[in-house]
Design brief:
extended; alpha+beta; about 35% helix; 5 strands; two-stranded antiparallel ribbon; single chain; 3-stranded mixed sheet
């Protein structure tokens, strides 16, 4: 049973919407659960890099790609561009006749295979720091 912020238990059907939200957020916070996405809307916006910074970051990423992705994955795909409003989306050309270690180019497979994609994104962000990417999209390679 949820506990009212000022003490005492309250049944969800007896609470106002505002009271329910307060209790829900306090309950989640007490268990170390991340706040909902809307709570992050108040964070400081990330700056957009200049075109020169983006070009240098992409060149650095292309040069380091075999070390980042590993030899087998680097043979299957290559970074093409940083896109999006703030250039935080990495576009990667991939050989769709092969499959990546995480299952498929357009979705993640079951655990633990999906951890390989997380490791790839972490390695990409380590090379691109302080910039970084939020998304990696794979598109078919042009023949």
């Amino acid at each position: 049973m949820p506990v009212h912020p000022e003490g005492g238990e309250m049944a969800p059907d007896t609470m106002s919407d505002d009271e329910f939200r307060k209790v829900w957020y306090l309950w989640r916070a007490s268990r170390g659960i991340e706040p909902p996405y809307s709570e992050y809307a108040h964070t400081t916006p990330r700056p957009r890099p200049t075109d020169a910074e983006a070009a240098a970051a992409l060149a650095q990423l292309v040069d380091a790609w075999p070390a980042i992705a590993g030899a087998s994955l680097a043979a299957q795909c290559t970074p093409v561009a940083l896109t999006g409003r703030k250039l935080r989306r990495l576009l990667v050309a991939a050989d769709y006749t092969t499959a990546p270690p995480w299952g498929a180019w357009d979705r993640l497979g079951p655990l633990p295979a999906r951890a390989t994609f997380t490791a790839l994104r972490h390695a990409v962000n380590a090379v691109l720091a302080p910039h970084g990417v939020d998304h990696i999209d794979f598109v078919p390679q042009s023949p």
